[in-house]
Design brief:
464 residues, alpha+beta, Cytochrome Bc1 Complex, Chain A, domain 1, 2 domains, six-stranded mixed beta sheet, 18 helices, globular, disordered N terminus, Peptidase_M16_C, Metalloenz_LuxS/M16, Peptidase M16, signal
Length: 464
Amino acid sequence: MKKILSITMLAILMLATSIQKTNAQAAFKVPVYEKFTLKNGLTVYLMEQHEVPTISISMVIPAGAIYDGDKNGLASFTANGLKYGTKNFTKPQIEEQLDFLGASLNTYSSKEFAGLSSKFAKNDQDKVLPIIKEVLLYPVFNQEEFDKEKARALQNLVRAKESPRNVINNYWDKFIYGDHPYANPIGGKTSTLKDITTTDLKSFYAKNYVPNGSAIAIVGDFNPKTMKDKISDLFKDWKKGEANSLKIAEPEALSNKARVLLINKDDARETTMLIGGKGIKRDNPDFVAIEVINTVLGGRFTSMLNDELRVNSGLTYGARSSFSSLKNAGTFNVSTFTATKTTEPTIDKALEVLKKIHDKGIDDETLTSAKNYVNGQFPPDYETSGQLAGLLTQMFWYGFDESFINNFQANVNGLTSAKAKEIITKYFPYENLQFLFVGKADDIKKIVEKLGPVTVKEIKADGF
């Protein structure tokens, strides 16, 4: 009897612990932060987090690949070039100082914006912040360092095309967006990279690296009043310019007919594919519901796509679906790969899964499982100071506020099977699909011709 009571008590304790964890997750909110704008237009976010004596910085600047013009790769070169040396620091001096302090400083370019991230000890802020200022405000774009970077970039472009999965998204963006700037490959292409000079970098920097339209988020162990004074003083000499981030128009409507792009790779033994079409903007009000449904379709290992294409049929080692969401547009695709000889059944099976979720929707049991999965993955994404700093700059760039986070789990839990069916019909492409294949054209062209008009490109040709 005592043993039975002990087991019962243990079960009650475990249940209580589980409820506490669930309640803790449900209570997750964006920590308190301060937001203000400097006279030059730079938006600043400050969030105190005193658990660990470190500070993390995230920054976004309207200087992404969409502003490359006809010099694809220019934004990426410029972002990397910020660390080639500055007015007062050489590249080795910057690296040695950061290494000595155990601090990090990274610059990069994405499709829409350039970014900077940094992490350092609280006690080193007066040593690292001046370096960040130098990198942002006074880069010199050293010729020798640029030449080395350019040589590496050109070699990387050649190597990347040896593996279709490295470049297929560049082909997809060009296929979907056409001549729109969203088609610009972040890493550029050979014909444009070889002609880019440090003069181009300096010109791009002068035009696009402006404080208005940019934002910096600082999260960590600091005094907010002191940090506000420091940041205001640090960037007071950054001159206001013309903000470019609002000039990119929405892409034209996607083709209303099924199309096929076939990238020929003569030595391919497998076919790599993307199937999909139009997606959503990042600020879509149904973003959370779409994420839950996509988890069922292809967003986790136990998804419908992975079950059918990998587990049940053995056609591939993996299959997934995803939305790539930008400020003014987005795409959706199902992605997988298979041996050349199983190309046709793999396509058929992927389309079968898409048809199934459109015809039948999602049952309550499966939907509950997906909700639990998404809720479980949610809080760990915003645990560290770096993650929170990144969240704040994402909020700035894409125009959503803390309600996205604060109401996230409520929106997840409120999704019903009936609502899921509406979301699937509205946002998950099924008719007039766009198909992209990378493989041996001689072996698969007749197969893919059944899907729509085919355009063939050579993977060895320049660009995408």
